Amino acid sequence: MNIDDFLSQLPPVADDGFSQRVMGRVHAITRRRMAFTVASIAACVVVALLILPLHAIGAELGLIIPQIASSAALNLAAAIIVVTILAERQFARL
Amino acid sequence: MSESDFLAREAAAGDAAAFGVLVRQHQSKLRGFLLRMTRGNHALADDLAQETFLEAFRKIAQYGTGSFFGWLCAIAYSRYLMEARKRKLESLDEATELADDAPEAERASIVRIDLEKAFARLVPAQRAALTMCFALGMSNEEAATALNVPLGTLKSHVNRGREKLAALLDVSRIRAVS
């Protein structure tokens, strides 16, 4: 064997469970990330529930929603959005 | 877009299975590279390969385009240097012998042992440059990027490493004859 042969060869390394061990740790990282995300969202929701004046917001929404529902301009805008989405889906199938 | 690029994009979007395919595709070459860097220390090479893949998974969103394996090699080389400094495995110009736990198969040929020993005496940058450019088939540009050195420096590592390897082999043959 000369130098060129030696340099150009890299003996293959058998997997022997290496990939599984790596993926086991990858899944552990994914689970930790997921747990952190869920915990963060839960903490934000709890803080929001404690801070926000929910009764006042509910009362406001009770007044606003019927007005929005009876607004011709807003209903027209909503209809245009729905028609646009449906048309886009139809064109995507072609 | 290469298959590795596609899989890396899927992995960045949260598909762990796609990353699993990347690990299986590249583990042999990466562990082979690290085996050469660690002078045949299988345990250390596997630890470094594992840490490299985990770092790649954490940073997969940072991978743009180009060679995914080159990107892995860059992480692996930087991990190797950190570990070498931490464990004081070698100074950057120290000459040491081949690790004791090098596999038997690699010791079967006397010439191969000479080559392994001579290769182990090269500085890490030369070992990395020679392995990337010859054994892993990376272009000079890819290897330079992976080692984070200018192209001229990479070529210098390759040329000097090859010359030193030839010189060390000559010395060992002269010793064997005398």
Report the CATH architecture of chain B: Up-down Bundle
- What percent of the residues of chain B sit in helical stretches (DSSP H or I)? over 70%
The global form of chain A is elongated
Helicity range of the residues of chain A? over 70%
**Low-confidence parts of chain B:** 91-100
Record field, number of beta strands of chain A:
0
Care to count the β-strands of chain B? 0
Protein model, in words:
The complex is a heterodimer of chains A (94) and B (178). Chain A has 94 residues and is mainly α. Chain A has 2 domains: 17-52; 55-94. In chain A, 83% of the residues lie in helices and 0% in strands. Chain A contains 4 helices and no strands. The mean pLDDT of chain A is 91. Chain B has 178 residues and is mainly alpha-helical. Chain B has one domain (3-177): Up-down Bundle (Butyryl-CoA Dehydrogenase, subunit A, domain 3). In chain B, 71% of the residues lie in helices and 0% in strands. Chain B contains 8 helices and no strands. In chain B, helix 5 (110-120) crosses helix 8 (151-177) and helix 6 packs antiparallel against helix 7. The model of chain B is unreliable at 91-100 (pLDDT under 50).
Outline of this structure?
The complex is a heterodimer of chains A (94) and B (178). Chain A is an all-alpha fold and 94 residues long. Chain A has helices at 3-8, 18-51, 54-69, 72-93.
Question: How are the SSEs ordered, and which strands pair?
Answer:
The complex is a heterodimer of chains A (94) and B (178).
Chain A: H1 3-8, H2 18-51, H3 54-69, H4 72-93
Chain B: H1 3-12, H2 16-37, H3 42-58, H4 68-87, H5 110-120, H6 124-135, H7 140-147, H8 151-177
Index terms:
heterodimer; A: 94 residues; mainly alpha; 2 domains; 4 helices; 83% helix; 0% strand; elongated; B: 178 residues; Butyryl-CoA Dehydrogenase, subunit A, domain 3
